[in-house]
Amino acid sequence: MSIFLRPHPSWSAKSQNCLKKTFGHSESVKRNPKNPALGRRQIIDGKAGGYSWQSYQDAYNSAIRIASAIRGRSVNPGDRCGIYGTNSPEWIISMEACNSNGITYVPLYDTLGANAVEYIINHAEISLVFVQETKLPAILSCVPNCSSNLKTIVSFGNVSESQKKESMEQGVDCFSWEEFTSMGRLDDELPAKHKTDICTIMYTSGTTGEPKGVILSNAAFMAEVLSVHQLLVETDKPATEEDTYFSFLPLAHIFDQIMETYCIYCGSSIGFWQGDIRYLIEDLLVLKPTIFCGVPRVYDRIYTGIMAKISTGGAVKKALFDFAYYYKLRNLEKGIQQDKSAPLLDKLVFDKIKQGFGGRVRLMLSGAAPLPKHVEEFLRVTCCTVLSQGYGLTESCGGCFTSIANVHSMIGTVGVPMTTIEARLESVPEMGYDALAPVPRGEICLRGNTLFSGYHKREDLTDSVLVDGWFHTGDIGEWQADGAMKIIDRKKNIFKLSQGEYVAVENIESTYSRCPLVTSIWVYGNSFESFLVAVVVPDKIAVEEWAEKNNESGDFVSLCKNSNVRKYVLDELNSEAQKNKLRGFEMLKAVHLEPIPFDFERELITPTFKLKRQQLLKYYKDCIDQLYSEAKTSKK
Q: In 3-state terms, what secondary structure has residue 547?
């Protein structure tokens, strides 16, 4: 049984006309040849200065030369090139060079290890790979097992003679960016391209098993780009050549690729971070972007940092902030637009928060995972800009739902279907979700112009999720009365406890994450046990402050082992659970405190910060066994 989600009535059929337009980045160059296109910070005497920019014309010329050089390496339309590295002008130029040649580009996650990169090179049969200079050793270590496919390596920067020799011994040529560019011409004729051609194969990070290669056509990719444009035309303000975008979300993922392609389509400027998390805020303040895209983990850290400053600012400042906050919130709830809801208080109270993003941000977007409602509300009130939360997958070419700017009632939801997609809910009886109930709940299924064409070389996986043209996402949604979608669960991440109760673990983790003591949490249970346990990465400052007040000594690592600290954290977590009305079997009975955040190096999270549950269980198995033993002993 299923129920459809209809497009929002504020959207007109103009979007369909928009999709018929012919798009080429050469048009952006003709309109804005001298406008800054791609920028990075200048490094002078080891220190980062201001941003240095390539114009649209310069970036275009570079892409055309690189495209010519690619053809000179006998890489033809339909063949595949890899791109491996953090966000940079060279990443975008490599992508555009492939696009202009009708060559499929395959992003390689810069956060994945050499084994995954090796797997993707072979599975996608990549013959040429563009590589960040610091990633050359990782690629060279793959060459002995990839040389049947890989024939050319192009560094974003320089290549040492020893690296050239190492690759040549394996039958692979290695070039610096400058060398490779000099091999190309500006006057070569570009091959014809078709909307049915494969634009990219994007390997999803995946929480289990080998990466899956999601095939996206030119038509799907450009339908998504143009639907973003149409959305902003209809509901807010589209990007222009006056806008600047801050590039720090991984370009290896669809969210940032779509946004940066959209910015190029509109002639906007793209400024890249340095690739070092320590300097991200500094890069942001120097660039002063107008468009900012983030993921919940980033926004949550911003929220936590601001709240910490407010709490230590004194009673008077706290009272003033609270007054301004709730005054503006009430106006937003009445439907008053962001810039008219409290302009004086924006200047007097919230301007410092706005300046924390550079002072010019006019549009904030959130995706990749559900944004906690309290964080979304806080950002909408305090950042002096519109914020839209969206939902999408690699398989849907990015966003397929989005909340509408200045429609405050959509807070806590991912909004309504975008103009290129149809959506329906399908009942999931085993989880108690009924798509035809008064409040419809069920698995979100999608159909439309932006859907993927299947998984590369995995027809079995394709057939399991594409049924009668509908893509089964695995996400559980709840249809709101105004047509907005709320993500409430994940179909796959459920398990049954020994007493027969089903546990929706992601929903429970979301609740526990609201506790101020928690930085990250992984909740575990299985069908042989009747209760839940968890591994918690606690907030260092909060734990140390509690320890000082309660005469507990030791550094952070030793405090995490302290039984009194563990009991304190457990009690606070279950207090949060009670406030949010979790059921008894959803309460935690024991926790392990982990002083080191879940990270990529231990393969505990994906590049989009999702928990890798099987790897977490493998890594913390002894801890889990100990937690169950402790909890059972304490019952006796």
A: helix
DSSP 594: -
| Fold equal for 53-193 and 278-455+466-490 | yes
Please state, in angstroms and rounded to a whole number, the distance separating the CA atoms of residues 165 and 167.
6
The burial class, CB within 10 Å (0-12 / 13-18 / 19+), for 74 is exposed
How many residues are listed for the chain in this entry? 636
Where would I find the H helices in 20-134? Answer: 25-31, 56-72, 89-101, 114-123
Whether 181 and 69 have beta carbons less than 8 Å apart is answered as yes
- Tokens for 156, please give them: 């974003």
Sign, Cα dihedral of 331, 337, 339, 340: negative
Read off the pLDDT of each residue in 86-92 and give the average, rounded to a whole number: 96
Out of 3.90.1200.10, 3.30.300.30, 3.90.170.10, 3.65.10.10, select the CATH number for domain 494-635: 3.30.300.30
**Alpha-carbon torsion (410, 411, 417, 423), positive or negative:** negative
**CA atoms of 129 and 173, how far apart (whole Å):** 11
* CB neighbour class for 177 (10 Å; exposed up to 12, middle 13-18, buried from 19): buried
CA torsion sign, 215 to 218 to 221 to 224?
negative
Topology, domain 53-193: Rossmann fold (3.40.50)
pLDDT tier, 312 (very low <50, low <70, confident <90, very high otherwise): confident
Q: How far apart are CA 611 and CA 415, in angstroms?
A: 25
- For residues 127 and 149, give the distance between their C-alpha atoms in angstroms, rounded to a whole number: 5
- Count of C-beta atoms within a 10 Å radius of residue 334: 9
Report residue 25's pLDDT band, with 50, 70 and 90 as the boundaries.
low
Structure token pair of residue 619? 């890594």
Class of domain 278-455+466-490: alpha beta
Query: Rounded to an integer, what distance in angstroms lies between the CA atom of residue 390 and that of residue 187?
Result: 42
Say whether 556 sits in a helix, a strand or coil. helix
Q: Report the greatest alpha carbon distance in the chain.
A: 82
Query: Both tokens of residue 529?
Result: 């046990």
d(CA 322, CA 338): 18
List the chain domain ranges.
53-193, 278-455+466-490, 494-635
Strand partners, 43: 48
**pLDDT given at position 500:** 66
| Amino acid found at 362 | R
| CB neighbourhood size of 578 (10 A) | 10
34-79 pLDDT tens trace: 999 999 999 888 899 999 999 999 999 999 999 999 999 999 999 9
Residues 6+ apart with CB under 8 A from 365: 259, 291, 292, 293, 294, 387, 388, 389, 390
| CB-based contact 231:419 (threshold 8 Å) | yes
What tokens appear for 324 in the block?
């301004």
Strand 36-44 to strand 494-496: parallel, antiparallel, or no bridges (unpaired)?
unpaired
Question: How far is 124 from 126, CA to CA, in rounded Å?
Answer: 6
Question: Taking the chain, what is the end-to-end CA distance rounded to the nearest angstrom?
Answer: 47
Contact between 70 and 79 (Cβ < 8 Å) = no
How do residues 208-263 score in pLDDT, each as one tens digit? Answer: 567 889 999 999 999 999 999 999 998 889 999 999 999 999 899 899 999 999 99
